[in-house]
Amino acid sequence: MKTAAVKAAAVTAAKVAATFFPARNFIATNLAVVVVLESLFARQIRDGDVNVAVVALDSVERSDDGLYGCTARNDGGEAYVNGHLEVQFPPSFDAMPNVDVYYSWNDNPINLTCIAESIPNATIRWYFSSNRVEASRNKQLTVIGEGPKSILQVTPKDTTHYTSYTCHAQNLLGDAEYVMKLTEAYPPESIQQAIIIEEESTADMVTFRFVGPREISGLEVDAYLVQYRRYDQSWADARRRIWTKGTPYVLEDLQPRETYAFRFAARNPVGTGDWAADVTRQMPEEGPPFRPVIEGAPISDTDFTQTPYPDRYELRWQVPPANGRPIDSFEVSFHKVVRDKSTGMWTQDGPKHTKSRPYPGGSLVMSLNGLDADTFYQVELRAHNIIGFSHPGLTVFKTERSHNQPPPETEKVKSASDDSEASSTTVETAEETYGLVIGVVAVVLLILIVVDFILCRKQKGLMYKVSRMCHRDSYSAKHYTLEEGKGDKDPKLVLNDAEKVSSETAPMISEPVASRSSKAIPPFSSTAAKVAANVAAVEAAVDENYGITLEYLEATLLELMPC
Q: What is the pTM of this model?
């Protein structure tokens, strides 16, 4: 690591041993920024088998502090080495907060902070009235830390402590001083004037503005106080109100036609100043409410606002002062307007529509619906109490263009054709759905029959129970004779003569039931054909796994259910 004092010259070198003289680049890494410092090369020399690249900085700045890298390259490869340049500098107070005056009062302790930046670190000492502060000698002064940050805690017991204090920082390269002043703070003086704002005052409310104290004795004013009483009362019975500085100075809930006395004072962190001269006011009689304020209304009477809707407008407003009697409703009226080209003012261009909204209880938002697109409207909003209506709050707005314009005739014809195609497609879809339902039901029934047949062979299931019932009835109604066949392995069923005749004359079944029923199935759509194909696949699967065909299944069922 190399060190250099600020404003001094700095030299750093990189040595490399190689057969071939390499090319070199110095790379400075500072604040995460890599810069190739080609211009910093002073010379490149050879010392025996060692090549040396030397970089020189004529006047080092604090920003030159950081990592530097040297890269050597030749045909044999590449090598890299890092080096750090530390720039030393005398103490500096650039990191100090921009405060050189401190305030204290009533023996409150106060901290004076000193921060000195330097390399190497500086030692900090405090001086009070040109004397070095030593905590062991003065209990009202306490030093916390000696660098690079130090705090002097002052507990002022008398006026001698309200003076200047010096922070002295020193290292090997130099020294620096920073002077701070401790001042005693006082409550503010009386305000110069309290002014009543008539246009913002009503029969039961007064609005003020203040001209603050002429001189600020230490800290700034942060609040104003008011005491007020009826004229026939004493200040001992007065009421009190505090306003934070910068807020509306409004006094409410006063009695109409009553005379009041007001007095005001300013306050800061130290305390409250003296009361200013009294202000007397007789409150006026009750009257209609003040003009309501419409939110978003343009300032100029000739301007307008744009609503994003083509057929409606959302009106929002604020409740105005009631002027002695409570507000019971709001009245909203609106009508079309056009601009007079000669005067630029708005004139009515259609009938007026009126709506009413109760208050309190009603919302302060009203939607005006059924408006024409791309049209100017004017809204008048009035507040009402038992005395009467207020002056109207006005706004003019313009509705948006409609996006639902009627299409041309050619487009209408095209739409009718599209409807016809859509209707035809709907019919086809219905037919396909009907065929699909029939096919699914047929597949489900087939699967149930196959499963029941398998169970019947195991003497279970619905077929088996029905067959047993039918056989019992048959045996009770007819006379069968069972004899052993000579030479036959299986027993035979021998019928009497009447049964033989009836059996011989009975019609033969010439075709399977399945084939007859398939002829009655109406032709399906393409979807139904797919279902039929799936049914055929199921039949093939049943035949492959169980060795059963539909014809065999039909014949077996007829044999099992002779009834």
A: 0.56
